[in-house]
Amino acid sequence: MTHPGRVPATTRIRVALALAGLLAVALAVSPPRAEAAGAIVAHGSARQVWLTGLPAGATFTLLDKAGHKVARKRADAQGGLLFRNVEPGAGYRVRAADGRASAKVTVHSEAATPWSTATYDQKIPSNGYGYLTTRDGTKLAYTVHPPTSPASLGIGLPAGVELPNLNLNYTPPYPTLIEYSGYGTAIPKGPENGIATLANLMGFAVVDVSIRGTGCSGGAFDFFEPLQSLDGYDVIETIARQPWVKGHKVGMMGISYGAISQLFTAQTNPPHLAAIAPLSTIDSVATTLFPGGILNTGFALAWAKERVHDALPAGPKAGQPWAYDRIRKGDRTCQDNQALHGQAIDLLAKIKANSHYIPASADPLDPITFVHKIKVPVFLACQWQDEQTGGHCPAMVRHFTGTKKKWFTFTNGAHVDSVDPETFNRWYDFLSLYVARQAPAINAVVLKATAPLIFQTALGIPSSDLMTLPHDPIQAKGGYAAALAAFEKLPRVRVLFDNGAGKTPLLSAATQPGNPYPGYEHSFSTFPVPGTVARSWYLGSKGRLLDRPTKRRGVERYVANPRAVPANNFLGGTGTGGLWGNASQWSWSWRQRPPGTAVSYLTSPLRSDTTVLGAGAVYAWVRSSKPNVDFQATITEVSPDGKETFVQSGWLRGNMRALAKGRNNVLKQQSTLLEPVISMRKADVRPLPRKRFVRIPIPLYFQGHAYRTGSRIRVTISAVNGDQPIWAFAGAQPRRPAAVAIAHSGRMRSRVVLPVVPGLRVPTARPACGILRNQPCRDYRPS
């Protein structure tokens, strides 16, 4: 999950590090200084005990208060040692092979309650790089960026655009935001992404913090373990106490990794957290890593591999380069903090061990299971076609029951479209009102003047397009009370339709097609939208999608071969430009499938505009020559001029077709016709029968799309791969081609079910082919 201005994981992955290579890298950085000569110094943590400064390879035993052995491990090449999954309690000691033992330590639970409020008495400067100590003694790297003006950043404005004569000499106390991430967040020279820079322009101080086990932060990395959430709690409470923080409350901001971490931290409810604003996040690990039960070896697994690499002790070929650079320049704290990096969890092994749903392992990692605990105001934005985290984020809306102050924005687009102009305006309003507690009009004029820079930085839009922020009625209010009252009257859910087809407010006549402006929008009180109808179209002979089920039996056949279509057909990278740029940059080559490798079905021309908003499903009666086949269903719009536009996809591993019973599943909701929830439990795996048809549910990811009058809705069923730019399924089934048959009859009612919102006005014409963001378009061709 990347962010603006940062080269993404998929273009920077280092893979297949041999064990000897790992050891060589670990030894490349000199081991940390022992904490005391000859002493064994243990530290109690949340269900953990950790030690540093040990002899490499030496064996140590963890003893409980009765002197019984709990665990035995060897110190690694860095002299670090970490015991995990230790029962809370007092009196633990660590003993060396020669009989020497540490003093007694206490192992704490993972409850958020502070162990000592003295932890938060640290003094953090209002500018610059440093280290913040958490409750268990771990030092996290941070950089404080005070608010700044465009002039101080050396920003050049477009010709003819001048900044108004405003006082931009921000003085403390500052409204303050925390960005908490596992990327190179705390780099002293400046944040790696454009989001933090934009927040500085908006008058916020930004505190960038690297999570434990990454960069120059101490500790060992584990994917969103509870201790990371406790660290987040400690960061918030420590920063909020600083004299330069306005109101002694802070907000959280960030995109992707920095968005997910907000959800994990906010569930602990730190007293001085004012609000969170996560952008482009996930709802669960499964919907990104295992869509439909199939391992996503494209972006998701590549992202995990890079996390493994970046969590290694910093050296010339491992860890985060900026940390190694600091060590070479004499940062002894950063060097010492590498001591436990070698104790990072084996993330790839963890993924393999959790290829099926195991509640004890999965639930703590899935935001959808705990966002109900969040009590602070929330602003969240996601995209239906997000090529990195996936389009399943809207499933969380109904689960945010812990707060009444919550707003959501959804649109078509790529990963970074959560900062498109319309969404950016509301994001800024939200942070101004609930963190800065001031009217957003204070800096609105400055933001408009610097908009070309904002979108060149964040979205890869050429400055020649002269983009700007659209009019915002909240910013037009006279003061804080009026702006707050107007904002709180806004409907909770906002959907931007046809992103890429709108006009640039500054120069509408010179609009660049594909720039991130919506064609129109609608707002709702909640999501799924009240009144949504589960509209069914039934599979029929000759590739037809019918309004009513057919009584006559028909069968269509295709050869399932996941390797018949290139796993990645995106022509370019996903950094600035690529999927994030304007139409000519982010369009990607959406190729036709080879004949005989898919079946498709098409409705008659629609008699009226049909808005589909929410999740859906394809239910098909299938028979296969192989016991396991992976299925992909793709929904498209075929317009009267013979063009086909991608809308959404869904996936299912055939032997994992069983639906979950009740709410005891990864999404914590009951299956419905529109939202079938597959079990993913190992006990529910069943081979596909060879000689009879069985019904399979293929859950479709969320969509918000208006199918215009005269268009036809198409569903294509095939093997996986080929319809997403950077999602791929290298381990897809079958390994060898399989003959698949799809049946439909009076008894076997194969169908597509979509969430139609009746009577929803569509005020604009059908967008031209290829201008909708992250919705490629091609010539229609029957399969």
Q: Runs with pLDDT <50, length 5+?
A: 2-37, 154-159, 163-167, 571-578
The whole-angstrom Rg is: 27 Å
| Annotated CATH architecture of the largest domain | 3-Layer(aba) Sandwich
CATH-defined superfamily of the largest domain: Alpha/Beta hydrolase fold, catalytic domain
CATH topology label of the largest domain: Rossmann fold
Number of strands: 29
- What is the top-level CATH class of the largest domain? Alpha Beta
Structural category is: alpha+beta
GO molecular function, one term: dipeptidyl-peptidase activity
InterPro entries: AB_hydrolase_fold (IPR029058), CocE/Ser_esterase (IPR005674), Galactose-bd-like_sf (IPR008979), Xaa-Pro-like_dom (IPR000383), Xaa-Pro_dipept_C (IPR013736)
Signal peptide: 1-36
Protein name: CocE/NonD family hydrolase
3D architecture notes:
This is CocE/NonD family hydrolase. Residues 1-36 form the signal peptide. Keywords: Hydrolase, Signal. Residues 493-753 form the Xaa-Pro dipeptidyl-peptidase C-terminal domain. With 783 residues, this protein is of the alpha+beta class. It folds into two domains: 117-524, Alpha/Beta hydrolase fold, catalytic domain (Rossmann fold), CATH 3.40.50; 533-759, Jelly Rolls (Sandwich). The strands form five sheets. Strands 8-9-11-10-12-13-14-15-16-17 form a ten-stranded mixed β-sheet, sandwiched between helices. The chain is globular and about 85 Å long. The two termini are 34 Å apart. Mean pLDDT is 88; it is low at 2-37, 154-159, 163-167 and 571-578.
